[in-house]
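Supplementary Methods. Inverse-folding protocol.

Structures were first reduced to a discrete structure-token string of length 204. This string, shown here, constituted the complete conditioning input.
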């Protein structure tokens, strides 16, 4: 059964390089989850490569890549950010940032040359990366009395759920991860247990 609760991203940062007519295009790829992370990576690269002419980038965020941006950073419009972004789409990646740092070599590459350079640099850095599939999950909080613990555990075992956190005090409190595709089914099972308080803490 095909589900829509996974997305593809990269496991860790990677680096790639493309050269053309004296210009160097150094590409960096990062797995990211927030715009704050993106800003920090770009700031670090600008500090590190302060002599570079351009720091062009594109990113996609969210399981469907609904949040995205492409930035030419002074290159002619559409010649840098868009080719980088196009490669993110081609590789079907999200929660990812690619920055291509350009050191100008003194020879103009023209529109097609620039598009090719930024596209190739991005393809190069992505070919160095390790791709992973991330499962989208909802997080539920369960509060219940010890007398119904066995019923709760039975549902957890039935769906092979992960208990992210457990607190044992006057009553039990669990935080559980539930794969998005089975979340409604699991919630329905828990709601049928009398005396159990179910709260959706995070929707993936």
């Amino acid at each position: 059964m095909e589900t829509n609760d996974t997305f593809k991203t990269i496991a860790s940062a990677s680096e790639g390089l493309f050269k053309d007519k004296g210009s160097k295009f150094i590409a960096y790829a990062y797995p990211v989850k927030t715009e704050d992370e993106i800003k920090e990576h770009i700031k670090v690269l600008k500090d590190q490569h302060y002599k570079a002419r351009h720091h062009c980038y594109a990113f996609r965020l969210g399981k469907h890549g609904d949040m995205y941006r492409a930035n030419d950073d002074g290159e002619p419009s559409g010649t840098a950010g868009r080719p980088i972004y196009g490669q993110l789409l081609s590789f079907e990646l999200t929660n990812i940032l690619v920055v291509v740092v350009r050191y100008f070599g003194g020879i103009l590459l023209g529109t097609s040359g620039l598009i090719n350079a930024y596209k190739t640099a991005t393809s190069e850095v992505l070919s160095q990366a390790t791709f992973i599939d991330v499962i989208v999950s909802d997080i539920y909080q369960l509060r219940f009395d010890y007398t119904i613990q066995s019923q709760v555990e039975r549902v957890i075992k039935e769906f092979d759920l992960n208990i992210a956190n457990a607190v044992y005090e006057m009553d039990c409190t669990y935080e559980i991860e539930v794969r998005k595709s089975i979340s409604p089914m699991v919630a329905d099972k828990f709601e049928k247990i009398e005396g159990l308080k179910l709260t959706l803490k995070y929707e993936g």
